[in-house]
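#lab-general

N.A. 3:47 PM
ok so I finally got the sequence cleaned up, no stray characters, all 342 residues accounted for. can someone with queue access submit it? mine expired

B.Y. 3:52 PM
send it over

N.A. 3:53 PM
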Amino acid sequence: MAAKYVYAIAQRGVYTDGMKTRVRVNWGWGLAAGALVLLTVAWVVYAVQKDDLAAGQSVHSIVVDQRERAYQTYVPKSLPGGKVPLVVMLHGALGSGQQAEKAYGWNELADKYGFIVAYPDGLNRAWAVSDRCCGPPARDNLNDVAFITSMISDIQKKAAIDMGRIYVAGMSNGGALAYRLACDTDIFAAVGVVSATLFGECPNPHKVSVMHIHGKEDNIFPYGGGLGSVGENRDGWLADLAEARIPSIPDLMSMWRKVNNCAPSTVAITGVIRKAVATCAEDRDVVFIVIDGAGHQWPGSKASEEAGKLLGFDSPSTDLNATETLWNFFAKHRTVSRTAKE
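B.Y. 4:20 PM
back already:
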């Protein structure tokens, strides 16, 4: 089509003026205009095919298991040269990628330290991590592990991601999915979990650095284990959890220390915060932070959660900034991915 357009422009010059010199001028003008058309078409095709992540906020979609899935990204306007880290932030039940982006402050840290953030959306505002968790995605047996790994592959095609510095953080139901990803994949250099637990079997967990932040008074995923109160709310939207026994959070951390071949923890207490740090084989760490008096929430959130309003979650603790604490932990760790190739 573009070639015909070039020819038409040139021909118009020939018939407008029969003088030889005039023909040469029009042919030259026609070829120049046609070349511009060709370059424009080529640029459009390149842009569509490459589909780089735009600076700032952008929305994307992919198809996983014949379902269209959505995620958002935040890319700082200025990034260091070379490949950069990626943080995947998983919202809690009844939350969303947009809600997580507004509430937790990852974009500000991305600007400061030079990394990309991805905010995926769970279908029906939840994630499937086991037969009991959580909500419609669990009842529909969705494969959210496949969605997150596919999303990371999609991002890697569009941006220069350091595949040895991919991290996942999750709140509540999103934290449970972060643990599921640690059980079922080896993509992540470190996992950060807030107010969550592990649901379902994890017979072959991968060695990975773990930071877990938990409120001592969390009544949805109780610190000492047992039955939480989540099944009582919202007309049974999460009723599958009503009879699910929550594992003890200290026992869960013991499991991760064993998986990672860790030394005994060193414990420091500062005010209401108890921090247990275990150094492990191959430069990994398992860190367990407990906040006395805090409930089911993301400490340091600058906005009350949309999901919290619906489920009655507790107000965020001001004794710790979970986002900055997690990033400082993530930044110390890297790995060579065996699942996602460079």
